[in-house]
Amino acid sequence: MISFAILGCGRIGRMHARNIKAHPRAELVGVYDVVAKAADEVAAELGSRVLGSVDEALNDPKIDAVFIASSTDTHVDLITRSAKAGKAVLCEKPIDLDIARVEACWTEIGKLDPLVMIGFNRRFDPSFKALRDRIQGGELGRLEQVVITSRDPAPPPVQYVKGSGGLFRDMTIHDFDMARYLAGDIVEVQAMGGNLIDPGIKEVGDIDAAMIVMRAASGALVHINNSRRCSYGYDQRVEAFGEKGMLQAHNRRATTVEAWGAEGTQARDPVLNFFIERYFEAYMAEINHFVDCVEKHEKPLAGFPEGREALRLADAALESLNTGRSVRLDG
């Protein structure tokens, strides 16, 4: 049984706390949040104890692992302190908004050989994983193209956008990781973005729509398209194309029922509305993988290096957007 502390009890932390509570090989020992009410609510719901501080969690020998679900600006400090305390770490993305801080973090803790996993949950989506497994199994022959579609149902509050690091570091970072998951290392990035949806996002210096084209070291081409608004729900699709054919992973719906009648055919339920519903199985599988890694002392599928590389791609996309040029990445 792997015992956990949750650091951060907002929407995402509460969801992870519930998933840990439901896992047969995990125990939710304690929860902490700088907003005491948030921690109190999660503890009361799940029968856990409220931790008075981060140090209380890190100094508790009964706690094996910490799940960092606090704001991004706290991640590097909490990863560093947790690793030095000998805890296994599962941290929400991104590691930080500043690649220099990310590099400095690993310089400080890398020698400890810590178990650090970053929350790129989409790697654990059953359909995306099956698609990758079939690519790796040679079903497509040589992989030539990957198309990743990711569109949110509605723009986030402008106040959130101001501190998010921008679309590439906040939203597209999942897609950058998916690109590497499917196509391998990326060596060139070209990005174009615009303000098509929310004037408030433009006012704080960010974009709300983007298309990114990338080249993998293998030669495969990857296209990512993002939007902060999608009228029909949370649009999450992946297509892989190769010399022998194509694989597609489609949107998820509440049911598979179709309606046929005089007014239309193949009418279906709307796509699932947002990330917690859409990626429910992925979040559960993510926790399961982390527990396996802690128990077996194995490296996670999405470790610190994967978090660092996704941020490098986000930075390259931003540079490309600002300069109008493609950006090549060194190894």
Automatic annotation (TrEMBL):
Coiled coil: none annotated. InterPro entries: Gfo/Idh/MocA-like_OxRdtase_N, GFO_IDH_MocA-like_dom, Myo_inos_IolG, NAD(P)-bd_dom_sf. One of its GO terms (molecular function) is oxidoreductase activity. The keyword Oxidoreductase applies. Keywords: Oxidoreductase. SUPFAM superfamilies: Glyceraldehyde-3-phosphate dehydrogenase-like, C-terminal domain, NAD(P)-binding Rossmann-fold domains. It holds the Pfam family GFO_IDH_MocA_C3. It comes from the Bacteria. Residues 128-247 form the GFO/IDH/MocA-like oxidoreductase domain. Residues 3-119 form the Gfo/Idh/MocA-like oxidoreductase N-terminal domain. PANTHER family: BINDING ROSSMANN FOLD OXIDOREDUCTASE, PUTATIVE (AFU_ORTHOLOGUE AFUA_2G10240)-RELATED, NAD(P)-BINDING ROSSMANN-FOLD SUPERFAMILY PROTEIN-RELATED. Belongs to the Gfo/Idh/MocA family. This is Inositol 2-dehydrogenase. It comes from Skermanella aerolata. The lineage of its organism: Bacteria, Pseudomonadati, Pseudomonadota, Alphaproteobacteria, Rhodospirillales.
